[in-house]
Write a structure and sequence with these properties.
Blueprint (H helix, E strand, L loop, with lengths): L3 E5 L7 H14 L5 E4 L5 H13 L3 H22 L2 H23 L5 H22 L4 E4 L6 E3 L2 E2 L1 H11 L5 E5 L2 E4 L4 E3 L5 H11 L4 E6 L20 E3 H9 L19 E6 L8 E4 L9 E13 L6 H9 L4 E5 L2 E7 L3 H7 L4 E14 L2 H17 L6 E4 L3 E6 L5 H12 L4 E7 L3 H17 L4 E9 L2 E4 L9 H8 L1 E2 L2 H9 L5 E6 L4 H4 L2 H6 L2 E5 L9 H13 L4 E2 L10 H10 L4 E7 L2 H9 L6 H10 L8 H4 L2 H13 L10 E2 L5 H4 L3 H6 L1 H17 L2 E12 L2 E12 L11 E8 L7 E6 L3 H19 L1
Parallel strand pairs: 1-2, 1-9, 2-6, 3-6, 4-7, 9-11, 10-12, 19-20, 19-23, 23-24, 24-25, 27-29
Antiparallel strand pairs: 4-5, 7-8, 11-12, 13-15, 13-16, 14-15, 16-18, 17-18, 20-21, 21-22, 26-28, 26-30, 28-29, 30-31
Helix pairs in contact: 2-3, 2-5, 3-4, 4-5, 11-12, 13-27, 20-21
The structure holds aspartic acid (ASP) and magnesium ion.
The site of magnesium ion has 4 residues, from loops.
Length: 781
């Protein structure tokens, strides 16, 4: 049984490496019985079209040049991919086919469709042979055996039978896209870029569950992501909008692709063959996703007014010009958008019923929910007019607008349009992980924050996670009742369940807010990024993971235009990360950061005056909940070491944790053993501290536990440990529990910039997370 029909386009097969990548995808994603539809490799169809044109112009020289070019291209692929035996047979076959083309060209008996078909035939044959070579059961299938058309109409019953007969259940079927046959067994093509259509046709004839279109973009975006940095990848797009986009010339999906899926439940997925881990766009049945906003640009088109358009004529015309067409009615007249290069053909086909109203125009179409159309029409017209691109012709329809201009819309103008038209009305889904003290306060504060955030964006809390339990409500969790809902509805989850739930969210933006202290949870960040989630973390693990992992996470975020904030991982709500970023962005360079970045150690050192043994203070702090469950976690200094690493990386340094020298705030022996053995030996700690404090007092100094980072002449030194602070200095005057960051830079060289205040506590930390969230939203706008 066919479960999935995969389709790979020309760009996915443009080189031997791409074939190998495709084979890897097939290895990972197919089972025997599945189908793989392929296009011609790279630009082969274009080359074949050129060959046909040269043949028609009787340009013999060009014909043989192009044949040579095709020969070279195929030969290279075959030689790079196939083992000697398979290679010999493949080259032989290629040689015969090319010789036949040359002969037919000479004898004036070349057929256009049969000529173009070679591209797909070569791809299918090569891929199937290559898969066999990898040990897979695979065979190539010529779609002319599967799809028959009579007078341009598909013979569904016959085709279905042919598929049942020829699609093998025991191997992977590599099927040619783009081509079919007529009743006389002549080749016909399904239109340029028709392989997507081949794939959905095959899916419907074989009752597949899914059709996966593997392409060179990651899915369907709000606009061309190569032109607009903030283009949004949608996880779900409904069929109606996808269809409309295709008719309007958006290249991601082609107009006929969706038609075979009508009245079926077949799932259609668009995903990247380059970045196979990235999340995809699913094209869903009407009503299974909300309507989205899109802008698609139009280039070199003519506007025709058609008199007495007949039913089916658009289909005929688009078959004729091998291109999708869009028509609409304005003031009772029927208009047609035609690629300028095809106007001549269309006009002569319509024999006097086509009037060219405008020629060689550019512009854009905005597809949107019906309720938004009128407003978007005004806004778009205004933006274009301000950019001296006043539309020559515009049309407002039920679910899109069309604006045709003299000049084309470049990426700057498209970005402006995108900023103005697409961002409004977007939704951000929040998933909060960690429902401890800080998490609870964060959610409490969220209800007040929402009023403020709502002006920019519609923000919804959709997921809550704690340890191994999760609560997901894609339409939003009611903030007033989240606790009872959690009690009643949270379920245990496995990692895959969580990722599936996130991938199913139908939101323009998603953010995972990690308020856990779990290293295991931080290891999921790359998976969240693949699902297009922004990240906010109070958790320190990801920011202090080894550099390779950390850098690759950063790269993936950047590639997907995703943001990551972790302001509260150092100094809780204190704006230390902002300050560092701001200084550097304004051209300053930081030379030294020193301070106390642990509320616990700050409290212990500042409270200590020798009147009470240090270990008593430790126990007191433990009781007040100021410390980790085992306070030695704090005394070890590791937490401060992590924070200093985060600050260092914020400055662009590539340190590892171990590059930061660490001396704990306790004697070595106490670090070992269980908590009871610590208690038994606490005298050691008291003596250790008393001795250090006495040492400091000799110079009129006090004991502090600090982190320090120095950059001098390109050399970086970083350490965390005991320090003696001069009485009267900011460090010495520290209020017990406060954090302090003393920053020296080029501009703050003599007098340091000091940031000081509570560096822990649920309110300030939760507020710091809100500050990250607010920043995120500002940057998404
Ligand atoms: N190879 C054909 C073309 O370039 C079909 C396809 O790529 O889908 O138009
Ligand atoms: Mg193609």
């Amino acid at each position: 049984m066919v479960n999935i029909v995969h389709k790979f386009g020309g760009s996915s097969l443009s080189s031997a490496e791409r074939y190998q990548a495709v084979a890897n995808i097939i290895l990972a994603h197919t089972e025997a019985g599945d189908c793989v539809v392929v296009s011609a490799a790279g630009k082969t169809t274009n080359t074949l079209v050129k060959l046909w044109q040269s043949y028609q112009q009787s340009d013999q020289q060009a014909v043989s040049d192009i044949l040579l070019q095709l020969d070279n291209h195929q030969r290279t692929l075959i030689e790079q991919l196939l083992s000697p035996t398979a290679r010999y047979a493949a080259l032989n076959m290629l040689e015969q086919e090319l010789a036949l083309i040359a002969q037919q060209a000479q004898q004036q008996s070349l057929q256009e469709a049969a000529l173009l078909a070679h591209g797909e035939v070569w791809s299918a044959r090569l891929l199937a042979t290559y898969l066999q070579q990898l040990g897979l059961a695979a065979n190539d299938v010529d779609a002319r055996q599967l799809f028959t058309l009579n007078d341009g109409q598909l013979l569904h019953q016959k085709n279905q039978q042919a598929c049942a007969q020829l699609i093998s259940a025991n191997s992977i079927n590599v099927v040619t896209g783009f081509i079919a046959a007529d009743c006389q067994a002549n080749t016909v093509t399904l239109g340029r870029n028709g392989s997507d259509y081949s794939a959905t046709l095959l899916g419907s004839y074989c009752n597949a569950q899914q059709v996966s279109i593997w392409t060179d973009t990651q899915g369907v975006f709000s606009t061309d992501p190569r032109k607009v940095k903030k283009a949004i990848k949608y996880s779900k797009v409904c069929r109606g909008q996808a269809n409309l986009l295709a008719r309007l010339g958006n290249p991601v999906l082609h107009a006929k692709t969706l038609s075979p899926l009508k009245n079926t439940d077949i799932k259609l997925v668009v995903r990247s063959s380059y970045e196979t881990e990235a999340s995809a766009t699913e094209i869903v049945k009407e009503g299974y996703s909300k309507a989205k906003r899109f802008i698609t640009t139009l280039e070199n088109i003519d506007l025709l007014r058609i008199d007495q358009l007949r039913g089916g004529e658009i289909g005929e015309l688009s078959q004729l010009i091998q291109h999708s067409l869009h028509h609409f009615i304005e003031n009772g007249d029927t208009y047609l958008l035609v690629p300028a290069s095809a106007t001549h053909q269309v006009v002569s086909h319509l024999q006097g019923r086509a009037n060219i109203i405008e020629s060689n125009l550019h512009g854009c179409a905005v597809v949107a929910p019906s309720n938004d159309v009128a407003q978007l029409f005004e806004q778009a017209t205004q933006v274009l007019t301000e950019q001296s691109l006043t539309p020559r012709f515009s049309h407002q329809d039920a679910d899109y607008i069309l604006l045709l201009t003299d000049q084309s819309i470049d990426s700057d103008v498209l970005t402006l349009l995108h900023d103005k038209l697409i961002n409004k009305g977007q939704e951000l889904a929040i998933i909060v992980a960690g429902l401890g003290n800080v998490g609870e306060v964060f959610i409490e504060q969220l209800s007040q924050q929402l009023n403020r955030l709502q002006h920019h964006f519609s923000v919804k809390l959709v997921g809550l996670l704690r340890s191994r339990a999760m609560l997901f409500s894609p339409s939003g969790i009611a903030l007033e009742q989240w606790q009872s809902q959690w009690q009643n509805e949270a379920i245990d989850y496995q990692q895959d369940d969580l990722l599936t739930r996130i991938s199913e969210l139908d939101y323009e933006h998603k953010v995972v807010i990690d308020i856990t202290a779990s290293e295991a949870f931080s290891e999921l960040y790359p998976a969240f990024v693949n699902l297009d989630c922004h990240l906010i973390s109070a958790n320190k693990y990801a920011g202090t993971a080894n550099n390779d992992w950390y850098q690759s996470l950063r790269r993936n975020l950047a590639e997907r235009n995703l943001l990551w904030r972790y302001n509260t991982s150092v100094g809780a709500g204190l704006p230390i990360n902002f300050a560092l970023a701001d200084l550097q962005n304004s051209g300053d360079s930081i030379t030294h950061i020193e301070g106390v970045f642990s509320g616990t150690l700050s409290w212990l050192c500042s409270s200590y005056d020798g009147s009470v043994p240090f270990s008593d203070l430790v126990l007191q702090a433990q009781q007040m909940g100021y410390t980790e469950p085992d306070p030695r976690e704090d005394l070890s200094g590791r937490d401060m070491q992590r924070k200093l690493l985060i600050l260092a990386r914020e400055l662009g340094l590539t340190l590892e944790l171990d590059d930061i020298a660490l001396t704990p705030l306790m004697p070595e022996q106490l670090a070992q053993g269980d908590w009871q053995s610590f208690l038994d030996n606490k005298q050691l700690l008291d003596d250790f501290i008393a001795e250090k404090a006495a040492d400091a007092a000799k110079d009129n100094k006090v004991l502090r536990y600090t982190g320090a980072l120095t950059i001098a002449e390109g050399k970086v030194t970083a350490k965390v440990g005991l320090a003696y602070a001069t009485q009267g200095d900011a460090l010495a005057n520290l209020t017990p529990g406060d954090n302090i960051f003393v920053i020296n830079s080029q501009w703050y060289s003599d007098n340091a910039l000091v940031i000081q205040g509570p560096g822990a506590g649920k309110e300030v930390t939760a507020a710091g997370v809100h500050s990250d969230l607010y920043w995120l939203i500002q940057n998404l706008k």
